[in-house]
Structure formats: C-alpha cells, structure tokens
Amino acid sequence: MAxxxxxxxxxxxxxxxxxxxxxxxxxxxxxxxxxxxAKHSQIYVELKKLLDEDSISQYIEMAGxxxxxxxYCLTTKGKEELQKWVLELDDSVETEKDIFALKLYFxxxxxKQEIHSLFNNQLQLREKKLFNLQKQFxxxxxxxxxxxxxxxxxxxxxxxxxxxxxxxxxYISWLNGSLDLIKKAEDSLT
Amino acid sequence: MAxxxxxxxxxxxxxxxxxxxxxxxxxxxxxxxxxxxAKHSQIYVELKKLLDEDSISQYIEMAGxxxxxxxYCLTTKGKEELQKWVLELDDSVETEKDIFALKLYFxxxxxKQEIHSLFNNQLQLREKKLFNLQKQFxxxxxxxxxxxxxxxxxxxxxxxxxxxxxxxxxYISWLNGSLDLIKKAEDSLT
DNA sequence: TCCAACATGTAACAAGTTACATGATTTG
DNA sequence: CAAATCATGTAACTTGTTACATGTTGGA
Lengths: 190, 190
Description:
The first copy, chain A, contains seven helices and three strands, in the order αβααββαααα. The first copy, chain A, has helices spanning 5-16, 21-27, 40-52, 76-87, 99-104, 112-141, 152-187; strands spanning 19-20, 56-63, 67-74. In chain A, helix 1 (5-16) packs across helix 4, helix 2 (21-27) crosses helix 3 and helix 6 runs antiparallel to helix 7.
C-alpha cells in the first residue's frame, strides 16, 4: 500500500483541534501548506475514507440556522496511527520536485535575454513568498528572540515557519548568485 | 489539460541527445533526478504517447545480436514545444512537499528522546546526499573555480548541481540549528 | 555458468487536478 | 440585495507507484 501522506497530514491537523473539511482546506493555504497541500475535492474524499476506516469520527455543528458543518475528530485508532507515523524513521529522501530548476537543466539554445527574464520572474515570486512568510512569522512570534520558551504546541509551528523562511532565503540567494554568474559569463565573451 | 511535466522533462533530456527509455530512467537517478523523477513504467507509457503525438520519433539500435534498443529523438514539433515551455514564465510556485517538515508540525506529545532520533536520522540522510552531490560536482567541474567559461551545454548542469548542493547545505544547517534550539529549550526546563 | 546490469513492457491501483454542481451565511 | 466567503460534494481525467512479466548481454 502507498504512503498515504494526505491521510497523516489530516490526522495531524485533527490532532491539534477538531476541524471540518473546509477548515482543513484553509489550513493547507497556511503554514503547513509550505510542505504539503491538497484540494478540497481530494480532502472530502479522504475524510470519508478515514471515517470508514475508523481513524476519525464525525459530529455535526450548526453554522447558522440550516448549515450543517461536519466536524471531525481523531479516534483512539487515529491517534495511534498518527503517533506511529510521526516516529517512523525514513530510510531515504524523496525527490523534491522543482520545475524551475528542471527548466534550467535545459537552458541550452535559450537567448540570454530570455534567461534573465526567467530568473527575474522567479526572483519576484520567491521574494513575494518570503515576504509573506516573514509577515506570518512576526505576527506569530513577534520580536520574541527566545524561542526556547515556546511550549510544545507552538514549537512545531515555529520550526515549520523557520524552515520555510530559510528555504526561501536560500533559494533567493542562489538565484542572485546564478544570475550574476550568467551575466559575468556573457561579459567575458565580449 | 494538466501540466505534463514528465513530457517536458523527457523532451528536455532528448534535446541533449537521443536516448532510449532505459537511458531516460537512468538520467532520473542522476543530476536531474534532484528536481524531477519517474519510474520506468511511467516513462515507457509516456514515450508511446509522445510518439503518437509526433513530439518524438523512434529508431532501432541493435545492442548485441538480438536486443533492439528503441532510441528516441525530438521532432521539429517536439523541439518547438520544449522551447515554448522553457520560456514560459510561472505566475506562482507550487508546494514543495517535504514529509519531514510536515511531521515536525505535529510534534506535540512526542518525547524529546524521539525528537532527537528524528533529527539525527534526517541529518544522516541529508549529509549522505550532500556528500554524493559534492562528489558529482567535483567529478564534473573539478577545482575549476571559473564557471564563467562554461559553455551553454555545461551551464545547465552546473546550475542544477549548485542548486541541489545549496539546498542540502541549507537543509542541514537548519536541522542543526533546530536541534540545538530544542536541546536548549529542554535544558531551560530543568 | 551465473549474476548483475541492460532493456522493455503491462495491469491494477493510489493520488492528485480540474471542472461541474449546489446551497447558506455574512458583509458592505 | 449583491458579492464574497463559507460549506460540501461528485465525475472525469491525469499522474504516479507497485507489482508482475519477460528476455538479452557482458563480465567474473
């Protein structure tokens, strides 16, 4: 059987608090969405499956007068499965797919003007993303320079955000370095 | 229609030189496999599709006496499609999935002993990967400190490898920093 | 002569995307 | 009262994985 990452990311989210399918969809647009995501169409199907398998249970919460919000919470089985999965040690790392880097491998025959556009476009996207992550970070952790006082609930959030920020900073710095290099290579041909 | 990244990564590889399905499978275990990969079962199916669509053409090369190796090369259509795809500017970056980071978000209730194991295991995997990338890099580019003299064929390879190395270095440094932080947080509780 | 690597494929299934479909609630 | 957001779902399709299946070639 496959790895069912979506299953475990839903169980993980539900371990923090009860949620509806809609809530889970929203969560994937926030911090955790930096490392895993799914569309609502996939989420509703997976929730039904997890319910069938007794990893979660369901109850109804009224939102307004007629709108029934389906809330989900972990069962004992679900809690155990999650715990077990988190503690499992990986024996290899999967390919971290990156379409921009993939394209670079095929740069041959591309005019330098176009290469500059590609890099500048990517820089813009990455800087925007970094800016948003930093905004999230300072909203949550402010100026607080001592993350050692975070409780275990906040720690996960802190680690994930610093990871995402560090990843983007590194991406941007590599983009800048590579663009410089390409420009220098062009100059050396004149 | 979907984005067909596998299609374009195959076209990209074939733009460098004619290859068989087997050759393409092997390529995905090398540099380019850091950013995209696929199993042979998927590759053979995709090649048949690309042949149908006239993006590639096929010829036979005898390997030994009876073994017919099916070689593929780009058609004019395939070359144009590739060129167009490489030059397209993205308007957003997709989620860069990372299961280890995902797990960290769900750390609550995990004993510190186990957290150390998770980090140390990941450090080991990442360091091994970095070592292999550095080996590849020095094999290809040696001590040569002046990448500005690379021709456009080598440039793509250089960029992809430095990207992968930089990504791993950043990952490792974030792992070390976070592990330190967690240890300090534990000490502060005594 | 055996084994690893070369070489190509299919079938069944799981995972993920896009589009279609509907209705309630809140806010300006 | 209109529009944005909340809320849930299904259908058709694409993409990706695992397992099954077979045969060749080169080297120790």
